[in-house]
Design goal:
Layout lengths: L13 E4 L6 E3 L1 H12 L3 H9 L7 H7 L4 H12 L8 H8 L3 E4 L1 H14 L2 E6 L3 H5 L14 E4 H4 L6 H9 L8 E5 L2 H9 L3 E4 L3 H10 L6
Parallel strand pairs: 1-4, 1-6, 4-5, 6-7
Antiparallel strand pairs: 2-3
Helix pairs in contact: 1-2, 2-3, 3-4, 6-11
Length: about 220
């Protein structure tokens, strides 16, 4: 190949997208505040159950990773905080835990839906999520019902981004080579991990920046 020959760039065939704080606006601080009230502790302590992943009592992290189920989460709360949940409280807990959901980001939803319809782009989700949040908005009549061709959720994979298993599962259902995939996430560390797998990566900060990136890739109007 001579110096004037341009390297062929493979077109994007699949978008692999995070959900929370990309497609769905979410405020975990509200969840933590409500749960702190129920557990008779403070929101900082509850937040650590999610963020301090190396601690054995990081219950919310382990719940999202699929290491424990809802019953295991409740047992952990009982041991750590002396507050016992019962099966008849499941509905109330689900409502409580969903309080941070602020609904779809309509512009991101429109961009992805249009890209799929116009260019035939396959949409796959790849998200760190517990089974409660993972099942919301996806039932009949809900905004995300059948929105994605495939969903890769951490609690089912038993791994959390940026662990390799999440990207391996996403690529397995992408129906495309890594270089034909655009990975979108609001956490830079997760995007960088995707790039190490050979995917294009976009660190999501706003719908405007996402539109600019899609336009650059020929998937949206400037």
């Amino acid at each position: 190949m001579n110096a004037t020959t341009k390297e062929k760039v493979m077109p994007i065939r699949t978008i692999i997208c995070d959900v929370g704080d990309v497609l769905v606006d979410f405020d975990y601080s509200r969840c933590f505040a409500y749960l702190a009230h129920v557990l008779h502790t403070d929101a900082r302590t509850v937040r650590a159950l999610w963020t301090e992943k190396d601690l054995p009592d990081a219950l919310l992290y382990r719940f999202a990773r699929g290491d424990i189920d809802l019953a295991g989460l409740w047992d952990g709360f009982a041991k750590q905080f002396g507050v016992r949940f019962h099966s008849h409280m499941e509905h109330d807990f689900r409502v409580l835990w969903m309080v941070g959901s602020e609904g779809l980001n309509p512009e991101v939803h429109r961009l992805l839906k249009t890209t799929h319809a116009t260019h035939g782009i396959r949409l796959v989700s790849c998200t760190n999520v517990d089974p409660i949040h993972g099942q919301e908005l996806r039932g009949p009549g809900e905004a995300l019902n059948n929105f994605f061709a495939e969903e890769v959720q951490s609690w089912q994979v038993r791994a959390m981004k940026p662990e390799a298993a999440m990207y391996e599962h996403a690529l397995a259902v992408a129906h495309a080579a890594p270089e034909e995939c655009l990975f979108i996430d609001d956490t830079l560390e997760n995007v960088e991990a995707a790039q190490r797998f050979g995917m294009h990566g976009h660190h999501f900060t706003s719908s405007a920046e996402l539109k600019h990136e899609l336009a650059r890739l020929g998937l949206a109007s400037p």
